[in-house]
Amino acid sequence: MAITVYSSHLKKKIPFSPIEEGKVRMYVCGITAYDRCHIGHARSAVVFDSIFRYLREKGFEVKFIRNFTDIDDKIINRAKEEGISPKELAEREIAHFYEDMDALGIERATFEPRATEHIPEIIALIETLIEKGHAYERGGDVYFRVRTFPQYGELSGRNIDELRAGARIDVGELKDDPLDFALWKGAKPGEPKWDSPWGEGRPGWHIECSAMSMKYLGNTLDIHGGGLDLIFPHHENEKAQSEAATGRPFVNYWLHNGFVTIKGEKMSKSLGNFITIKDILSEFHPEALRLFLLSKHYRSPLDYSPEALRENEAAISRCYYTLFEALDVIEAPVKKKRPIEGRAQDALRELEGVKQAFYSAMDDDFNTAKAVGHLFEGIRHLNTVIEEAKRRPSALYKDELQEALKTFSTIGKVLGILQEDPKEFLERRNISYLKSIGLTKEYVEDAIKRRELARKAKDWQTADSIRDELQSKGISLMDTPQGTRWRIEK
């Protein structure tokens, strides 16, 4: 099945056909490096990381660019507040970005350029726009002349006359039209600055993405992504200045992920509902956050709550436990080759279709919500096979389960989950949970030994009492041919 993509520009799904066969040019707007990354950044990063991974899974060679804005009004103002240089602030927050993204399992982009390292390319692009009559200089600033680009507003669906009615010229600006936007800002005392044909200054926000994307990917990109909040004015301005400079389409597929809300409200510092990735990961497993962020279609809004994270963490744990159990069946020394029948046979038949169902979901505009649903459905079928394999052991299960695990490995690799060794994951989670309720692994193991002694003595009351006591603490016991095991149920 061919991939179809919803393009924000056309407002509909269209077949995905890259400029070069087998190759994809993808650019995603990165952070403005002035503060810790929040859950909104996490959503964009996880969404496009999964798209990046899936395109490669489908055999594409992907050149992926994610930039850093390391000079900007926000950076300058925050640096002044902290009494450090803008460069120091940007370096610190870029380091924090990598700390957060590495914890989330976000893969590095092919190139991760910074605005301040591409001043020559930015200046050259501005010069081209001036030469073509799309930009002008006023008092050391350079502005893009919006009315020279008739298609302005196409991406965001806005009418240029309505935009003009609501626009204004700020104090100190000398632009000819309120709609015009800055490409270059003349130097102010104490701010970072670079030499240019228009005097010392620094680039505007929008021009950097055009200059960097075209340097690494050419004049036309296959995919340009970012959050829904970037459509206007950032991406609208990028599109206008790029196409005005080259005379060619800038992007063939515009992709935008939806907002993360908190109790139905857009997240913002002013509302006091600003949640950083660091704070979330201090309480929840990174894969639980990834699963949560992929549980809705990337274009849909997503409402955050600790309860939702707890549910996703429990779901991740259940998946790991099933994989652990599957490995246990595979490794068990069973020589009998009883035929696989009944429920197990039906479940294995269903498992055969899970990978294709996953591909179909991802081919349909990278629908991770459906893809996750197929993952859970597959886990349910796998549990059925495991139950039957334990009830009627047969060596024939080994190859079937190994093939099933390959499917879950593929799905996990694309979604960035189930990337740990199941035994190690469960061991660490168990110890962490026990620590949170003031118990130790040794306490549980001692209780299991006491229960075994009681069972051998046929003291069923004591044995049941020990089981019930552990159950009340969220610890479940399973009696297997290999001995008694325990797991966390909460």
Automatic annotation (TrEMBL):
ATP binds at residue 269. Its EC number is 6.1.1.16. It is an enzyme of class 6 (ligase). InterPro entries: Cys-tRNA-ligase, Cys-tRNA-synt_Ia_DALR, Cys-tRNA/MSH_ligase, CysS_C, Rossmann-like_a/b/a_fold, tRNA-synt_1_cat_dom, tRNAsynth_Ia_anticodon-bd. Zn(2+) binds at residues 29, 209, 234, 238. Its cofactor is Zn(2+). SUPFAM superfamilies: Anticodon-binding domain of a subclass of class I aminoacyl-tRNA synthetases, Nucleotidylyl transferase. It is found in: Cytoplasm. GO terms for cellular component: cytosol. GO terms for molecular function: ATP binding; cysteine-tRNA ligase activity; zinc ion binding. Residues 357-426 form the Cysteinyl-tRNA synthetase class Ia DALR domain. A motif ('HIGH' region) lies at residues 31-41. Keywords: Aminoacyl-tRNA synthetase, ATP-binding, Cytoplasm, Ligase, Metal-binding, Nucleotide-binding, Protein biosynthesis, Zinc. A motif ('KMSKS' region) lies at residues 266-270. Monomer. Belongs to the class-I aminoacyl-tRNA synthetase family. This is Cysteine--tRNA ligase. It comes from Dissulfuribacter thermophilus. The lineage of its organism: Bacteria, Pseudomonadati, Thermodesulfobacteriota, Dissulfuribacteria, Dissulfuribacterales. The gene is cysS.
